[in-house]
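writing this on my phone so excuse typos. first protein, seq and then structure
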Amino acid sequence: MNKEEIDIRKKSPIKIKNRKASFEYFFVDEYTAGIVLTGTEIKSIRLGKASLADAYCVIIGGEIWIKGMNVSPYFYGSYSNHEMRRDRKLLLNRREIYHLSEAVKNPGFTIVPTLVFIDKNGRAKVDIALARGKKLFDKRQAMKEKEDRREMDKVMKLKNRL
């Protein structure tokens, strides 16, 4: 990821994160994919009414799909409102899909969505990661590091006040 891509993510008004994913998995490789949405879905995402909590990606017939992504129905939508948890197609290059499909064949690897954001052109994008599951001791280590960082921040704030 280059500096321009990072700036786009920082400036995006909508950032829907999958916080559970970083706790459950080590990220090996990351990709940014477009997502095929209907009219009311993009409106709901622009209002921040989406969740990646139980979402995952699968490769079916040379295409990559996101399953379990919750996009709440648009409040002002009429009879043409969308389903909340339908499968949505992701847009990646053939080469990237091939790389992911080969990597997922190895045991312990999966594809998880990590972030949904709006790019500078107003399109919804999804960051997906090739991930390897963490063991229980890895999770404990991550929790300990997080706790240590919080403790250090508290000490620094107290030090700056004095």
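second protein below, same order as before
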Amino acid sequence: MDLFDQQDGRNDNRPLAERMRPRTLDEYVGQGHLIGAESLLRRAVAEDRLFSVIFWGPPGSGKTTLARILAQETKSHFISFSAVLSGVKEIRTVVDEAKNLWRNQRRRTILFVDEIHRFNKAQQDAFLPHVESGLITLIGATTENPSFEVISPLLSRMRVLTLKPFSEEDLSLIVRNALADRERGLGRFDLEIEPEALTHIVWSADGDARAALNSLEAAASLADGTAEAGKRITRAFVEEAIQKKALQYDKTGEEHYNLISALHKSLRGSDPDAALYWLGRMLMAGEDPLYLARRLVRFASEDVGNADPRALTVTIDAMQAYHFLGSPEGELALVQAAVYLATAPKSNALYVGYGRVRATIEKTGSLPVPLHIRNAPTKLMKELDYGKGYRYAHDFADAYVPQEYLPDELRGKGGRFYRPTDRGYEKIIGERLEAWRKIREANAKKQTTP
């Protein structure tokens, strides 16, 4: 029997992801924060008091499925259309239909709008009176931040519920359920799946249930084509189906820490080739690019610091570029940042200096701010000598004047936390600090000379 032959006496050519849509809240896997036993949404369904809502989440996180379940479990009339294909005319038709249903059958209408962020202001305005009156329970789905894409009057009449990408555990269960389900899934083909194949499907899906089921369906069709009994979905079938080779990687286990350590040490060791290799390994294995962006930003301050202050700007720009472009285009910005960091002069003076500060604070506690650098916004503070004797730097040559800024207890007692290296821009910083130090010493000598 072929995988795509008739099922249950009828030809069902729908994709596996469509056939396996949960039909009830109890069948729904994941999103426990929204549909858990004591959740607001569960109670609203149980009490038949469903409210207008926007489901905000990434592709394949179950927004459409959840909307359909809510319509079914509240016995409402469900209408679905896409913001890409529909306009004000279609909205008016829906409103008329909703009025007739309520007038004749006392039946509510749930209107599901996929990609609601694509509606313009006039189209969104058309919903307002009918959402406010309760004629229509509006459920919108969007992958974009609603606060940027949905008009404020409509947003204020709806609740925004955030759907998260499915966890690896959730996706594994969804795939196994599809393999076992003999009515709607692949159970009637008695397929088994190798653990490595299942892991690769889950990683490649990256939180997207639809992508996981599409990959499973493609790999299953390859396995079903073999003549041997007891067919198994192997990692090779999965790799062929999704055209992506599985790499040895565990995003939460030892290999994750091994690879990020290799990347960090390659950057610190000024080896751009090795840095690119480890960055590529992690990206191709399915690591979250924004996790890597955060590590590059951290490195810019920890291991480059003021030896090249531009490094922090480059890494922040790379992170923003990835936010804007996504994969795969945005990955090149991370590559650019990695090469910049690897070839930049290195200094950990900021990292070490901040460590000295923390150790000193833990040892000395909350030392008082010297009076002369306190602000004095009130008469009482002035009478208590707040700000007395403070010298305004811009009134002096080169905008520098010898003056104490540390608490009295730290003066001359290891209060020099930041010690720049002689590499990159820190060499200039060091020369500047040394010049100021000599001015302070000369000033101190002048004050002590009789």
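Residues 1-10 have pLDDT under 50 and may be disordered. thats all i got for now
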